[in-house]
Amino acid sequence: MLGSAMSVSSGVSSIRRVAIFGGTHGNELTGVFLVKHWLKHAGEIARSGMEVRPFITNPNAVEKCVRYVDTDLNRVFDNQGLGLQNKVKIPYEITRAQEINSIFGPKGSKDAYDVILDLHNTTSKMGATLILEDSNDDFTIQMFHYIQKSMAPVHCSVLLIEHPKVKYATTRSIAKHPVGKLDKLQHTVRKHRYCDYVVLVY
User: Fold this and answer.
1) 127 within domain boundaries
2) Helices marked H in 65-197
3) Which of 9-18, 28-37, 153-162 has the highest mean predicted lDDT (pLDDT)?
4) Three-state DSSP class for 179?
5) Where in the sequence is the domain holding 113, given as residue range(s)?
6) Does a structural domain hold residue 3?
7) N or C: which end of the chain has fewer CB within 10 A?
8) Is residue 79 part of a domain?
9) How far apart are CA 63 and CA 65, in angstroms?
10) 84 CB-near residues (< 8 Å, 6+ apart)
């Protein structure tokens, strides 16, 4: 999936920094296994002109093999969580979110990582699924189309979770182009010039 420094014709600048997250939920083990593997075998994901960084996001939850320790790490990357000060005892995952934001962000800034792939498992029978948070993110949609073609004949769905009134507080939302995995929800299908995607029904 990762070539040399990536760019698209729509005016997006070259993609230079990519992070691969595993263990956002400590009991979802595929991402944990892959990230630990790539930490030992970095050459498998190394690409010329690009930083590709595997990272365990919630190590305490991974060690205990639980979804989270104090609160869901995948829900606290908002202004409230990232701005919480040490005046009171802060939940472990909020402290961890602030650490992750300082490494891979700051969220919403030009210095944030270009792409974060956040790897999850689900008990829903949905197979391989890519999560899209912005239907105007042409780069990510084209990347998803490339992934779908590369995986064929194995099916790979794309799930759009865009909503005009929702600001996402997911781990991956730090990046300019966030990519993730989500549980199965009520949906419909929408056509796009690059790939079809599933849209959540709110």
Assistant:
1) yes
2) 79-83, 92-104, 138-151
3) 28-37
4) strand
5) 17-200
6) no
7) C
8) yes
9) 6
10) 90, 94, 98
